Task: structure prediction
Amino acid sequence: MHTIRATEEPVNRKTGSHPAIRFEQGPIPRGPLHDLNAQLPDILKDVVSRSFAEVKPDSHEWLLSEAYYQERTRIRREAKGGLAALPTAPRRMRDRALWGKVQSGLRRNSAEADRGELTRAVIKHYAHEIGGHFNPSIYWVATRLVPYGFSWLLNAASVRRFLPWGMTESLASRLRIVGQIPHLQKLARKGTILLVPTHQSNVDSLLIGYIIYLMGLPPFAYGAGLNLFSNPLLGFFMSNLGAYTVDRQKGNPIYKAALKNYSTRILEQGIHSIFFPGGGRSRDGALEYKPKLGLLGTGLQAQIHNLQAGKQKPNVYVVPMVTSYHFVLEAKSLVEQYLEQLGQHRYGGPTPSEESLPLARTAKFFWNLFGSQTGITARIGRPLDIFGNFVDEEGRSIGPNGTSIDPQRWLTTGGELRTDLQRDQEYTHRLGRKLVERYYRENTVLSSHLVAFSFFSALRRKYPELDLFRFLRLTRPQRSLRTDAFMEEAARLHRAVLDLAKQGRLHLSEELMTENTEAWVKDGISHLGLLHDASIVKIQDGAVWTEDMNLLYYYRNRLSGYGISFLSSTDRPRAPGELDEKGFLA
Result:
């Protein structure tokens, strides 16, 4: 079997950007994930043992009652069709059988029904539900046939007819993979990689897996939302490619403990993993600014256990990755969910629903992607250790003062290498803050992002007194501007992002390197309108307008957090994700 070996070209001195990577054929390495099935019984046994040990003896009753209440509510919603993504029929049957047993046990006194045994049964149920599998044969099929199918679709979309022969383009040609690829490849041989990408779309799981294959790395395990498993075809592949199930409808402490311990345990096994720190897709369109620290901290716990066990390669390396799309498959439903949560009774829009990965819309996404001669940018950021320090190519942690540090000393308290809850929480918070900083610095701004931000900013200048929800309800005549006013704002913001790029605070796509404002604006508008039924930004007869304010806000938010809106320039500096005085992402 062969895949791609990446070689990095010199940094562009003018923009500070890494150019795209050239790819050459090379053998794909066998990784620890190949042995997952043989090791899974021991892994699940450890997950159950560790999770049970974390439960205080006097808290079984309370934890079981809380879990039962939440699960009963979820099962009722499923029965009424209240969830867009349902578990498979066998999983639903196992759920009902378990919680019927728990209900019966809780109704009896503790002498008749041991609460500890009930808790252990629940943990075991969750562990087996979460645990993934890996089938090398299915992986071979996925890495051979799926890219071929995408390449066929790409060529067909390019010429608007299906041609199964004489293909001149491949899926890899539409993926612009840049950044610290050789660095990542070296670290994958020195320790365990925890890849932490930004998350915009359900398409991410497909593309990131393929990008890992292109970079010549062994397959990675990853947590996938239950909604993805509801698609029979996609669920089949993910169930055999190391994906473990993450059910975001389950928020009780017992489930969280089982999920955390499974992630920790496979990292200890040396299995490279993917974790989306945002916890789910970005619903407001912005880069992740509130990372979920629970699973993020499993890297630290895994390294402590590895050091205690005296493993030869104990280190876990955290590698940020930022993907940039011109258009997002589920953007409309995502921003509606965000606005409803933010505004509640003030939102006044349609009731948003959770989207899975519908086949027709997914096909339309890739058809438009391929037919437009555009692509997706994936930037591999500078690797970090479990504390948020940079790591050199030899795997050494570089401390705040620029000197090499020994992670084991940072994990030793009172002369003992051990877990320390307060200390470890602070380390994980530190890592979370560093990741947010790196996401913003590793972000590649596309022409579509800047077009949406520019028009939104110019429109806000016209209505500076309106708050977010009044602004989003502007009528069609109100949400139009003269073209010259829009172009003036676009030129101003273009200069601003050029300055940010020179400072190393972000990266720009090639289309934004021109001084011709009309050229990059035209490019951005053409990409914004490819997927959605409504025109997000449209220029005609000397005027610019939008047909969907919510989508405009969603795509505009990709550039929030940099302080370049006209209001941000007069206010105090704001942290990423913070709202300004009118309720907009600053």
DSSP finds 21 helices and 19 strands in the chain. The two ends are 48 Å apart (CA to CA).
